C-alpha cells in the first residue's frame, strides 16, 4: 500500500532516518516504521507533526493535493 509514500519520500529527501524521525516524534522506530509502511494507522497528531517538520500540509502528505505549501493559519 502506498498510502504514506509521500511521507517516506519527504523523509528520505531530507536525509532523515526513520530512527531520527521517530525521535523527533517521541515514538519508537518500530512504531514509526509501521506507520510509514501503512501497517498501522497513523494518528492525526503524528501526521500533524510530520507536516510541521517538513513544512507541508496534511493534504499534501495524503496526496490530496500536489501543492506542498502550508495553508495560512487563521
UniProtKB/TrEMBL annotation:
GO terms assigned for molecular function: DNA binding
Pfam families reported in the protein's UniProt record: HTH_3
Family annotation (InterPro entries): Cro/C1-type_HTH, Lambda_DNA-bd_dom_sf
SUPFAM superfamilies: lambda repressor-like DNA-binding domains
Highest taxon, organism lineage: Bacteria
Domain HTH cro/C1-type: 7-61
Protein name: Transcriptional regulator, Cro/CI family
Species of origin: Marvinbryantia formatexigens DSM 14469
Amino acid at each position: 500500500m502506498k498510502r504514506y509514500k509521500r511521507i517516506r519520500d519527504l523523509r528520505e529527501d531530507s536525509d532523515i532516518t526513520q530512527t531520527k524521525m521517530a525521535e523527533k516524534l517521541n515514538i519508537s522506530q518500530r512504531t514509526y516504521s509501521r506507520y510509514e509502511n501503512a501497517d498501522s494507522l497513523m494518528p492525526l497528531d503524528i501526521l500533524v507533526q510530520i507536516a510541521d517538520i517538513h513544512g507541508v500540509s496534511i493534504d499534501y502528505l495524503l496526496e490530496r493535493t500536489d501543492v506542498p505549501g502550508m495553508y495560512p493559519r487563521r
